[in-house]
Amino acid sequence: MGGEIAKKDRWGLVIFAALVAFPFLGSFGLLEPDEGRFAQIGREMMAGGDFLVPRLNGIEQFYKPPLVYWLNAVGYRVLGISEWTARLPSALAFFGTIWLTGWMGWRLGGRKAGWLAALILASMLEPYALGRQITLDTTLTFWVTAALACLVRVGTGAEVKKSGLLFFLCMGLGFLAKGPMAWVVPLTAALAWTWALRRQGQRLGLPWAKGLPLMLGVSLSWFVVVCWKFPELWKYFLGYELVERFASTTHGRSKPFWFFLPILAVGTIPWTGFLPGLILAVRRKIRDRSLTPAQWALGAAVVLPFFILSCSGSKLLTYLLPLYPSLALALALWLEKGGDGFWTQAGWAVGWGILLVFSPALGAVQFLWAEAAGISPSLYYLIGVPVVVVVGMLFVWRSENRVWAGAIGLSCVAIILWHGACLEMERINDLLGRQASVRPLARLVQKHQPERLFIYRARAAGLLFSANRNVWINRSDADVVVEPSPEAKGRFFEKPADLRKGLAQGQRVEGITLRHIFREEFDPAQWEIVGRSGEFLLVRSHGTGI
Q1: CA nearest 271: which of 123, 141, 412, 422?
Q2: pTM over cut 0.90
Q3: In Å, how far from its chain's centre is CA 49?
Q4: Which letter does DSSP use for residue 500 in this model?
Q5: How far apart are CA 34 and CA 461, in angstroms?
Q6: 223-282: per-residue pLDDT in tens?
Q7: Torsion sign over Cα 45, 49, 52, 53
Q8: Helix (H, G, I), strand (E, B) or coil at 153
Q9: How open is the CA angle 234-237-241, to the nearest 5 degrees?
Q10: Which H/E stretch holds residue 530?
């Protein structure tokens, strides 16, 4: 086991995590569908002052718990409304997750393991990308990591009672951020640690009798209150959002069982090449019965939730995010011991190789995909990335301690590349398809100031955020759970032709739809395209005078 982290390392870790999490948060528009939706719900919560019932476009929304919306609303009130402020809660969560992961590495394996864990997590592609977007998963991951940190304190004998209660409290707050995964990962780790200690005739000492009621009370507090106000929500939460999300394909996110395997391989870039060596090392330790209780807990926190997610009828790439801190810790503890010869060398080769071809591959997309013709990062990025990678490789090659220097070099070069990609997002926005930002279209709307604005069969809530006005919407797109207000129902429409009614001749109606929807349902004699962003189109027509 390691020890208490030194003061200089505490502050060093704070500075490092801040340099990773906070720069360039506002350098590109909100990505769809999640960023636009979550940012706008927090904005409407702040504007309306109702912190109990989240609303989007003036319509009640209950598909997610409210913790992130609360944080966004407070941030807007204090710091003003912008993309940077909207992403700040996620950036703070990512910052805290990096720091806690480093602290756990220090506690479990010493100073070097702590820094390795922080470097690995901060530079992994998926944690970095989602840690700088408005996603509920990022805040969930922070509370999961905080719960694991409390578990480490309990397991290493530090303030067992207090840390044990905080373990359960963090799980409750994580549930308010996203849902049941806040329980699954920490409880899996705690049960594995308990089991491993009992095999040695010891006990962990978690306060289950007091902790479980605390966890349930915090987790269910908001749900109980809103269900008291809207009794029909009990069936919605328990049936549609819990049972059907896991056990059916109702949510339209059905993927094959192996879906998360390539997601994990891409999400761990540039550390993907080390995973086979880590797996073989763990297998050997299991065979030799040399895994420590903490190592059993880390393994369980990755493997069992991964299996549960793979069995779910609803799969999104963001669901893996809470597993990365434990995976980064496992990699750090393995590399700190020197790795396994061939597999360590293979890992370094794969990591540097991926970074070296990253920008050339990104630049080549325009030649390989017709939809991307003419869309490319700047020449500075295309040339600068290989130069930075080569300089990083030379730094490592000239160092005596290849593992330590390699980890610093690989992680720092990766973070520089990811930061640079943030600055290039506006240039490559159209490559993102339905995840593209609609901020360019919202700017056109603000310039045109149409009398009526709509969204039709597209998830583009970023238009609400950027244009700062409610829109007309098809009822099936509105996620109606409880009966909306008369004002909101007055903005419902069925077909595009309905949007032209009620406007005088010459008055304009503009809105966002998807390209294939425009081809299928809009009359080109009556509608014109005035802008494009990814798969989204801004279209315009005029009133009928009827």
Answers
A1: 123
A2: yes
A3: 27
A4: G
A5: 8
A6: 999 999 998 888 887 876 666 666 555 555 678 889 999 999 999 999 999 999 999 999
A7: negative
A8: helix
A9: 155
A10: strand 528-533
